[in-house]
Amino acid sequence: MYYHYWYYKRQGVQSIAFPRPVIGTQFLFMKSCMKLDQYSRFPHIEYWHEHFGPKLPKIFLDFRSPCGAIIVSCPKMVNELYVTKNKYFDRHYREKQVGELVIGDSILFQKSSIQWAEKRKHISTVFYKERLQMILNTITEMCLKQVQSWKQTFANRRDISMDINKEILDMLMDETQVCVFGMEYLYKKFTYLENGSLVEISVGEAVRRIFRTALRRLYGPIRELFEFCDHFYLTDWEKELKTNVTNFRVFLLGIVNERREAMLKPEFVNNGDFVTLLLTLDLFKNDDKMILDECVGFMIASTNATSLLISNTIYYLTQFKAQGHLNQIRGEFKKVFKRDNFQDLTADDWKGLLNFDNFADMPYLSNCINETLRIDSPPISFGIELTEPIDLLGYKILNDHPVIININALHYNDEEWQEPNEYIPQRFDPQSKYFLTPAGKKRHPISFTPFLGGKRVCLGKTFAEHITRYQLAIILSQLDFEFTDQHLYDKKPKNHAGSGQPVYSAYITLQN
Ligand code: HEM
């Protein structure tokens, strides 16, 4: 710890504080966590800013864990990591080590290797145009059905309101589950152990709860300080997690085997789901563990981030309705889809309207989605591991501790973004004055990096962009949201990946 402290101090790299033996600066982090409320940013972001103030140094040291981590908040340095130094850039091993039981060797946490690259190449075929279209058709049908159900339950009523966050997440969980396993398993229940009791939940909900508990295990102070604990399940809730994960994988294996048998039958119809795809690929078809790892990885990578993006976009459009963003988006729908009313469209009508190309003519919708991704990026920071020591724009960085890319700082950098705390979709419009930095220059491209970059760039980026646009088109063309609580207009309770989700309660009216 002290070697790292002095090694970096000599290069002018500041540390959060002088670390204490064994506990480093963990005590400062815990102290900072006690001040968090519903409007706070992610705990470690608040803790960094508490120490350094509103503007973080472009590179600094944090000793929440004994070996310390280097935090990088400068677009030029991150660009260097994505491009010139990308061959030394890898996923940090700790997440895989802690999450091994849950996610195994899924490409999501696996270190870069020939096998990882091979798997990534094969899995990316799921997002080829025709296959992607099949998945998007399924999502279109499910989203429309959900909107119809919301209309029946909530529309034009003041005695009942809809929690945007919960409803979107439930919908996304069902959709992802269907994309992975097919429609026939949507209502299949898994028996989950919670606080000593057994509860019946959907596959999507099981993945969500397992992922959330696994994150809690990963980011707790015990594992920040004592790495050897990664291999043990210590508390009652950790032991429950282990039981749930073991049972869940047996349960999923049953689904995979059923599908394998079904595919042998002449009447089998391929609906384009992920399990069926993996069972047709030579690399995967005879390896159950590999199939399970990727199915769980797909669900974890896809559900939370996309659901946060959709519900946060609806939130901002409702919060800032007076600024006319929603009107502009609806104007684009009317122009591109060539109709004024969307209430009675069938799933087939929507499938005819929604296609890859026509969203190019809806720049305002894309700008709003990007602005949500900037201001509320689902990944707030990302820990990488260097495979060799590197020179990062003059700083000599060692490879025996994590390097954390501070996405939050890049997205709020006031040298790159005008009024960074404001929701201004026009900053993605090349014609707008907000497209430029406060100094009137072109913005550094790495100032916006919600999907990461380099060889570990999000594999589902295009998929995520499409499902978000498709579903926002179906929802926003038909429904209008009005918050039940004035406070929600004043200030947005933060909605982070991995934390408990706030209630975004709204009345629904039909849009005409
Ligand atoms: C708004 C939505 C999304 C955002 C912001 C996002 C962001 C990211 C980021 C930052 C990474 C790199 C870090 C990491 O591995 O965690 C990543 C990786 C990944 N994402 Fe996404 N993602 C989104 C949606 C999706 C979707 C819908 C899928 C679909 C399956 C997906 C699949 C993946 C996979 C497989 C990886 C691992 C790639 C690798 O390391 O080889 N993501 N995503």
TrEMBL record:
Xref: CDD domains: cytochrome_P450
Source taxon at top rank: Eukaryota
Ligand binding (heme): 458
Annotated InterPro entries: Cyt_P450, Cyt_P450_E_grp-IV, Cyt_P450_sf, Cytochrome_P450_Monoox
Keyword Iron annotated: yes
Entries under Gene3D superfamilies matching the protein: Cytochrome P450 (1.10.630.10)
Molecular function as annotated in GO: heme binding; iron ion binding; monooxygenase activity; oxidoreductase activity, acting on paired donors, with incorporation or reduction of molecular oxygen
Keywords from the named record: Heme, Iron, Metal-binding, Monooxygenase, Oxidoreductase
Required co-factors: heme
Keyword Heme tagged: yes
Pfam families per UniProt: p450
Family: Belongs to the cytochrome P450 family.
Protein name: Cytochrome p450
Taxonomic lineage from the root: Eukaryota, Sar, Alveolata, Ciliophora, Intramacronucleata
